[in-house]
Amino acid sequence: MKESLIVDIVYETSKILASSKDYKRSINDVINLIDSYTDLENITVRIEDRKTKELKVFSTTNIELPHLRFKKGEGITGKVWQHGIPVIIKDISKEKDFLHKDIFPDKRMSFIAVPIKVKNEVIGVLSAYKKSKKREKLDIYLKLLSMVANITGQFIKLIVDFEEEKEKIEKEKEKLKKRLDSLLGETSVEGIIGKSKAIKEITGIINKIAPTPATVLITGESGVGKEVIAKAIHYNSPRRDKPFVKINCAAIPEDLLESELFGYEKGAFTGANKTKKGKFEIANGGTIFLDEIGDMPLILQSKLLRVLQEKEIERLGGNSPIKIDVRIIAATNKNLEKMVLEGTFREDLYYRLNVISIYVPPLRERKEDIPLLVFYFLDKFNREYNKNLEISDELLEILKNYQWPGNIRQLQNTVERMVILAKGKVLTEDDLPVDIKKSLGKKTYTKKIKEIPKELPKTVEEIEKEAIIKALEDTGYVIKKAAEKLGMTQRQVRYRIEKYNIPIKK
Question: What distance in Å separates the CA atoms of residue 199 and residue 201, rounded to the nearest whole number?
Fold first, then answer.
């Protein structure tokens, strides 16, 4: 073999490695290049398997070799790996340390092996066989393989590191998936996470009532997940392919709520330029979720009662009843029984809605569900914000023992905030929002809290609460006047007074 051929092979090798994104294929192309330009046979790249501590075949031109492995110091290949020194064996049949001579039983073969190094670390061996010829010098082949090994060493290390990192990530993903599957597996209803007795009872009820058309009333504090339960009932029912329509009875002004629910005909009122379907018609065949049903005005309660009794509605300005097939799921954080006694909620409607009742306890009463929810939200926001954060045991314990006045909604917002503003790869106590740190009353936070600027940015809810309090104070706590001052309805003001627990001074 001529020296000029070595230059050509090395040049082509560098081109292959520089142009391809398929790393494994690149190494295959390199050894095939050597195979086509020279009379070397069974050219093989072996790389250290860090798990088994053996040399395993990474790429070869010999289909019989991939199963062969060597331990450090084992055979000629193992010795090259161990000592990092190239070797030439003129005739393998006469070399007692040469293993697997039976590969070439009828031929006299020479063997050349060179270490593949990265800095001072031997990560593998490049080897080849050649038919023995008398007086033939093999130094030129040794030179070729050494040069190729030097060029490909760093490249191969990148491949190995990439494969190991990829495997590590896949294992982490699998580990996390199993953990989440086990968390989700605590309940038999998709979307509901928990292992507490209360959650298991709720999922048991859902499994029983979902296939039926029964009306359901869900009660519990704000933020406990009433809408999640309503969706679970719908999506586990025969109506799952039909609409799930939600309407918040407290968030829509009284004069608009009726048209939102029942729709209107063209010309029904000023501005009604065309016929519009209401939420009940849109939900036909599916489920309508009436959130904050306790805030529905009495006049609309009677119309809702008719829907439940007659299965029909009338649009505003219309004369013809419209038959509908809608399952009603209602929810409230109020005591409807007390409201019935006070005359602010219709008794007949209450009993119509309360066919199946589901009470969702606050998060502070089912602390065993908190770690499951934390891991669920952490995984969700890790994926959403392209992060890979973990959580410390100390922080998890703090979250578990916190009272969570805002329930699951507050927990979800807290985890999202911590993921976005994380200071390191592991969430710790330092990542907690300031309001939670203050409420914990821990000495460890005193210094940090003092360092926080006095004027913190206010949330929309804080601004709204302050505006309502000021309007009430300016009007002597007369709700009607406060509502006019704020440009709201009295119902909207009363809703926010309850929402923010604003005391009314007589």
Answer: 5
Asked whether residue 198 is assigned to any structural domain, the reply reads no
Tokens of 157: 């290390």
Share of the chain residues as helix, strand and coil, in percent rounded to the nearest 5: 50, 15, 35
| Residue the block writes with tokens 């440009």 | 487
Cα–Cα dist 409/422, whole Å? 20
429 and 382 assigned to the same domain: yes
Structural domain that includes position 473: 460-499
Q: Per the structure block, which two tokens stand in for 126?
A: 């490049």
Say what the pTM is: 0.55
d(CA 369, CA 230): 19
197: in domain: no
Distance set, CA 133 to CA 130, 196, 245, 434 (Å): 9, 79, 85, 81
Residues 150 and 123 grouped into a single domain: yes
Output the domain CATH number for residue 116.
3.30.450.40
CA distance 261 to 31: 73
Q: Are residues 306 and 376 in the same domain?
A: no
Residues β-bridged to residue 391: 427
Judgement on whether residues 356 and 244 belong to the same structural domain of the protein: yes
pLDDT tens digit sequence for 104-147:
766 788 999 999 998 889 999 999 999 888 778 899 999 999 99
The residue count of the chain comes to 506
* Per-residue pLDDT tens digits for 430-448: 999 998 888 876 544 433 4
